[in-house]
Specification:
FAD/NAD(P)-binding domain; alpha/beta; elongated; 7-stranded mixed sheet; 25% helix; 17 strands; 5-stranded parallel sheet
Length: 311
Amino acid sequence: MYDLVVIGSGVTGYGAAMYAARLDLSVVVIGSVEGGTITLTDDVANYPGYIQMTGQELADKLKEHALDYPVLLETGTVTDIFRTKENIFYVITENKTFLAKSVLFATGMKERELEVPGHDELKNKGVSYCALCDAPLYKDKVVGVVGGSDSAVKEALLLAKYCPKVYIIYRRQKIRPEPVNARRVEREPKIEVITETNVTEILGDQRVMGVKLDKPYNDKDILTLDGIFIAIGGIPYSELAKKLGVELNEKGEIKIDRSSRTNIEGIYAAGDVVDSEFKQAITGVAEGVHAAYQAYKYVNETEFTFTCQDD
């Protein structure tokens, strides 16, 4: 039996596991994608202590730090979880079951898909959700990015290294990146921003050939493109937490307090899956650290009983 099971092997999970192990908790981290979604980020320049690195490099460093302690990493997907009357959690993957006194959800989120005609037919045929993965495939081609967040702008900046023209298409009046990235966009002549506009259809036969807009741009409602990258936010992986009775907000994010506690004792959450307004690698790791400390207090202040009948 483990003191803490961390569900999610991204930077949030690694940071939490490292701190929990420092507090002499027995810890296992379970995840299907080592490093999490930040490994798809080309440029991380806002993590304190590191001026610039890739997302993969940051994830590797946090993983290495966690493994400097007796932390077990388990590759797999948690398919079910339940709690016994003795307050023991059963965390079930495809082929293993882990018993735990406390659980941290660091499950992150999945990309929100653009629900317009043509999307499903052309996904992976010019429709992409990862510039770091696919940008080299669009060298010397014209592409668009749907979205106006900092993540969307960073996608556009990376694409501009390969493409002669990158359009940012955003439904609101103004894109909303971090100031440093806003300045980079302003200085990048390859990037053109189209605001107050929605993509209503993705056009093409075997490959993306363009998108249809809900209002004319340069007197045309068809924008010719070779590829379209979607960056419109995410959907939190909170289904298992909901199953346990954890309270979610209207977006499906797990509600936590300032110490990363949920409404249920022994259950904590951190990172992109929670209801924090500002989601960054550094804030997720900090929330994970808070969770580790709270788990330490809970485990050491709570009596647990385990009998064979729980099997």
